[in-house]
Design a protein that fits this description.
mainly alpha; 91% helix; rod-shaped; ATP synthesis; transmembrane; ATP synthase subunit b, chloroplastic
Length: 184
């Protein structure tokens, strides 16, 4: 191993007049090597790096533009959705108000119909009561008339004797005869 190290050391001690050689002093050669590498990279990589940065910039700008367009479309859709929501809320409120008024109207119609039905039932009841009263009065009159007739017949039968009975019949026949002559 010592031979390999010696060979590099011997390369480092070459005469510098007109020859090319390796400098093994790390502290002296690193800044020179780095400046050469950076110079080459800047000279040749400047175009590639600027192209890469321009492409990246264009992609970012396109993405921003697309995002703005999408945001604008989303805002527009949101406004349309809000308008639809307001319209639907208005219609729902109208349906609710109309529903309540329709319920109130139906309630009033039902109450009115119930009152009319009750009034008709009251009229039917009153008519039935009047009819039953009239029928009861007629029955009472008929019984009173029958009882009066029976008493009158009983009184007549007890008071009438054969002679009075014959005179009454004769008087009635005479009246019938007179009536017949008048009509002829």
């Amino acid at each position: 191993m010592k031979n390999v190290t010696d060979s590099f050391l011997s390369l480092g001690h070459w005469p510098s007049a007109g020859s090319f050689g390796f400098n093994t002093d790390i502290f002296a050669t690193n800044p020179i090597n780095l400046s050469v590498v950076l110079g080459v990279l800047i000279f040749f990589g400047k175009g590639v790096l600027s192209d890469l940065l321009d492409n990246r910039k264009q992609r970012i700008l396109n993405t921003i533009r697309n995002s703005e367009e999408l945001r604008g479309g989303a805002v527009e859709q949101l406004e349309k959705a809000r308008a639809r929501l307001r319209k639907i809320e208005t219609e729902a409120e109208q349906f609710r108000v109309n529903g309540y008024s329709e319920i109130e109207r139906e309630k009033l119609n039902l109450i009115d119909s119930t009152y009319k039905t009750l009034e008709q039932l009251e009229n039917y009841k009153n008519e039935t009561i009047r009819f039953e009263q009239q029928r009861a009065l007629n029955q009472v009159r008929q019984r009173v008339f029958q009882q009066a007739l029976q008493r009158a017949l009983g009184t007549l039968n007890s008071c009438l004797n054969n002679e009075l009975h014959l005179r009454t019949i004769s008087a009635n026949i005479g009246m019938l005869g007179t009536m017949k002559e008048i009509t002829d």
